[in-house]
């Protein structure tokens, strides 16, 4: 079958056969999207069958069906956006004829590509998209969106009391905390993504506990009431001028700036990795579209070699590389195939975990699962075609490189601060925002604060840390607006629920210097040991706390006041 290309990254086709799936893999497609509901026609292959063949061929599969003669729903469009923008390579969509596959692509690209380019792309492959022209116009997202209740008449380029860079956990929580305390503030949130993800849940997606859909919500639904959403990308911070330049060039002036821009996953930092992600047995729970592939690999592997890696610090959620390891081993043990699989954990760190109190319990699982633990071992390259990973390790005569064949490779990429932070004169030598570790105020520019993964602090980069940092930043930013010095301090708290098996977790909670900081008393929950209570908290309680945190609800968070 000939696949018809709308762009170099997206093509469409009529109903696929198993041979078509194999041909798509040979042509270099990285994902297949089913747009057709099951049962439309007698003898039609089920989406599950095509999906199974797609995964077996080393590609990602997504099903987003809608009926012929209907328009896709907003949810369908958002899901398609995630696939198109999240998959690293060409995507193939199919339905009965290819028309619906083209239509869904058109809606996903509305607001990104000019309407004329979308219509023309369809015409070139014999698909008329002009009948949906009006709907495309309505679906095209403006550069600036307001949350319900936002003040009318606000626009990019004017002055705000507070500009927040980043609409993730830290940025939304801090903005919501500000507006809850002072509703009349003018607050802008600069965030380009239409989707918000509960990233701590991706480990459980890769372990078959959550579905990917459970971790995603629309960004628009989470913008605090009264804040203005600037849906654009930051290109530069001018701290001396009190301005932020966004992608369209319009400057945003601020009285206080809060930087919550997160951390960048540097997939290109490992040679050959980007070319093979999502196929050839190479996966990562650090990406929304790949976490389901992790679970697919775990389910299908019955013998062979599975490698799990951890890069140099800093990284977000330093326990996540181990969580993937433990949940995979637990599933293999439940299926009775663990003894037929060689499992290896390669970590750049000199110890299994940075806080010694939690190492004994984790080492028990390393031994019980029969994991070959390689410390100070860094993944430097991946050859997906040969299924070979190359590691750099310490040798008697200096660094040496070791090649390891694999059937499954779970990769965590090295991570760096965003380029605009590194280049804007507000970064420390490591590239992250240079702040006082207690007040989270910039060491030079007193009207700048940072929190979350982008802050240059020595705490664990976790959502739990952002939950504790957000009220500190909100309160101190208000003090700055009032011409006062910061009044509250962050103690370095971070929480890392290490899922050592399905149903048990070692709940590591600690602050600066590795000081143990348990939320619950030891007689209720001993965080140094695996417990079922910690599993319940991770699976059922923490997701709810997370979504409430974004609304400015500060449960079990009491900022410490600085002694006068």
Automatic annotation (TrEMBL):
Q: Where is the signal peptide?
A: none
Domain (Beta-lactamase hydrolase-like protein phosphatase-like) spans 3-111
Domain annotation FAD/NAD(P)-binding: ranges: 160-280
Which Pfam families would you find in this protein's record? BLH_phosphatase, Pyr_redox_2
InterPro entries recorded: BLH_phosphatase-like, FAD/NAD-bd_sf, FAD/NAD-binding_dom, Prot-tyrosine_phosphatase-like, Sulphide_quinone_reductase
What protein am I looking at? TIGR01244 family phosphatase
Organism of this sequence: Acetobacter fallax
């Amino acid at each position: 079958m000939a696949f018809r290309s709308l762009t170099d990254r997206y093509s469409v086709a009529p109903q696929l056969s198993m041979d078509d799936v194999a041909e798509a893999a040979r042509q270099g497609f990285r994902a297949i999207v089913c747009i057709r509901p099951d049962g439309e026609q007698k003898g039609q292959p089920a989406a599950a069958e095509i999906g199974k063949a797609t995964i077996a061929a080393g590609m990602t599969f997504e099903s987003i069906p809608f009926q012929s003669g209907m328009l896709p729903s907003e949810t369908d469009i958002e899901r398609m956006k995630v696939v198109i923008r999240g998959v690293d390579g060409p995507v193939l969509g199919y339905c009965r004829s290819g028309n619906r596959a083209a239509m869904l692509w058109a809606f996903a690209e509305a607001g990104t590509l000019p309407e004329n380019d979308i219509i023309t792309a369809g015409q070139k492959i014999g698909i008329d998209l002009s009948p949906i022209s009006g709907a495309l116009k309505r679906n095209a997202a403006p550069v600036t969106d307001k949350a319900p209740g936002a003040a009318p008449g606000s626009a990019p380029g004017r002055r705000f009391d507070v500009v927040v860079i980043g609409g993730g956990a830290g940025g939304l929580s801090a903005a919501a905390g500000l507006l809850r305390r002072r509703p009349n503030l003018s607050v802008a949130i600069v965030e380009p993504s239409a989707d918000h993800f509960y990233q701590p849940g991706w480990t459980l997606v890769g372990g078959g506990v959550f579905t990917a859909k459970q971790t995603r919500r629309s960004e628009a639904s989470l913008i605090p009431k009264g804040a203005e959403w600037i849906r654009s990308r930051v290109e530069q911070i001018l701290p001396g001028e009190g301005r932020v330049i966004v992608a369209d060039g319009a400057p945003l002036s601020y009285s206080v700036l809060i930087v919550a821009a997160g951390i960048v996953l540097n997939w290109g930092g490992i040679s050959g990795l980007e070319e093979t992600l999502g196929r050839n047995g190479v996966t990562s729970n650090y990406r929304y579209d790949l976490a389901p592939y992790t679970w697919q690999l775990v389910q299908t592997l019955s013998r062979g070699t599975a490698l799990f890696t951890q890069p140099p610090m800093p990284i977000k959620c330093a326990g996540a590389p181990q969580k993937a390891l433990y949940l995979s081993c637990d599933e293999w043990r439940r299926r009775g195939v663990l003894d037929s699989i060689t499992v290896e954990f390669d970590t750049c760190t000199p110890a299994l975990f940075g806080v010694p109190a939690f190492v004994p319990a984790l080492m028990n699982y390393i031994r019980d699962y029969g994991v070959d633990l390689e410390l100070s071992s860094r993944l430097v390259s991946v050859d997906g075609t040969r299924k070979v990973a190359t590691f750099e390790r310490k040798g008697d005569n200096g660094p040496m490189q070791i090649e390891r064949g694999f059937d499954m490779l779970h990769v965590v990429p090295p991570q760096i601060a965003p380029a605009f932070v590194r280049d804007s004169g507000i970064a420390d030598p490591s590239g992250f925002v240079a702040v006082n570790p207690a007040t989270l105020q910039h060491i030079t520019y007193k009207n700048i604060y940072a929190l979350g993964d982008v802050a240059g602090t020595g705490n664990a980069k976790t959502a739990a840390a952002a939950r504790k940092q957000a009220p500190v930043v909100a309160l101190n930013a208000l003090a700055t607006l009032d011409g006062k010095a910061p009044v509250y301090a962050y103690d370095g708290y971070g929480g890392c629920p290490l899922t050592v098996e399905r149903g048990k977790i070692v709940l590591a909670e600690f602050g600066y210097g590795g000081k143990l900081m348990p939320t619950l008393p030891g007689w209720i929950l001993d965080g140094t040991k695996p417990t079922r209570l910690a599993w319940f908290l991770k699976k059922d309680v923490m997701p709810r706390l997370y979504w409430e945190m974004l609304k400015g609800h500060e449960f079990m968070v009491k900022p410490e006041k600085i002694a006068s």
